[in-house]
Amino acid sequence: MTTTAATTGDLSPTAPARTREVPRGPVWMWRDTWTEATRHLPAVPRNPDLLIFATIQPIMFVLLFNYVFGGAIDVPGYDSYTQYLMPGVFAQTVLFGSAFTGIGVAEDMQKGIIDRLRSLPMYQPSVLVGRTVSDLCRNIFTFVVMFIVGYIVGFRIGGTVAAALGATFLLLFFSYAFSWVQAFIGLSVKSVEAANSAGFIWMFPLTFVSSAFVSTASMPSALQTFADWNPFTKLTNAARALYTGTNPGADLWYAIGWAVGITIVFSFLASRKYSRTSK
């Protein structure tokens, strides 16, 4: 007695293979995003030198500006230069920390990990969202270290705890916004070295031509105009006011508006670049 294969149904030799559908909906989005974030976070303890070098640079800025230039810089309205300086260093630290997003994305591109992730049945935007979230967590650690250093050199919170927390959330929100800028850069360049250069070169004028280290009133008129409208100046002024207990005024809303706008624009650009990029 012989058996014959069924000619109908899923057991048919000629039936097409069942394909797995791409996950949809917010539940899968958050699940895949968390999976991607936790893919990067365990690498941080295994690579402690990355965190060490990420914190050494802002500590050097604190020591150099506070103890070398602090005696020669007088900022009206502040008891000490340290009170004026530290919010600017906090802002610079979290902004520079966003550069690791671009470097990480470029490294994944170079190693072919992005191509592999693009072939998986997963919520594709979670690849970039997970990366930015994991780098935000790393930035939180760096910020805590810098806050401790600031307290050691004499920085104190002059306002309420709620206002200080608001300043901290604003700084981290800005960091997250610029992580999307760095993600776009990482997807646009051809190597990790290029991502490192392209990610940092524009941040130096952005942070130094601002109110982070000196008052913009001391700058030439043309440079002062740029510095006053610099989004980094708005962030620094708002954070400084919240930390010291003064009214941030319109700077707070300008800073929030910049952060929201940068996040929307560059998350769109980075997502579109990611969907069109192949190695």
Low-confidence stretches: 1-19
C-alpha geometry: elongated
**Rg computed from alpha carbons, rounded to a whole number of angstroms:** 24 Å
Question: The biggest beta sheet, please?
Answer: none
SS-derived structural category: mainly alpha
How many beta-strand elements? 0
Task: Please tell me the overall pLDDT.
Answer: 82
Q: What's the order of the H and E elements? A: HHHHHHHHHHHHH
Percent of sequence in beta strands: under 5%
Helix content: over 70%
* Continuous helix count: 13
Distance from N terminus to C terminus (CA atoms, Å) equals 55 Å
What can you see in these coordinates?
This protein has 279 residues and is mainly alpha-helical. The chain has helices at residues 26-40, 43-46, 48-69, 81-97, 99-111, 113-118, 126-153, 161-188, 192-201, 203-208, 221-229, 231-244, 250-276. Helix 3 (48-69) crosses helix 7 (126-153) and helix 8 (161-188) runs antiparallel to helix 12.
Q: Brief overview, please?
A:
The chain is mainly α. The protein is built from 13 helices and no strands. The longest helix has 28 residues.
Helix and strand topology:
Layout: H1 26-40, H2 43-46, H3 48-69, H4 81-97, H5 99-111, H6 113-118, H7 126-153, H8 161-188, H9 192-201, H10 203-208, H11 221-229, H12 231-244, H13 250-276
Helix pairs in contact: 1-7, 3-4, 3-7, 4-7, 4-8, 4-12, 5-7, 5-8, 5-9, 7-8, 8-9, 8-12, 8-13, 12-13
Please name the defining characteristics of this protein:
279 residues, disordered N terminus, elongated
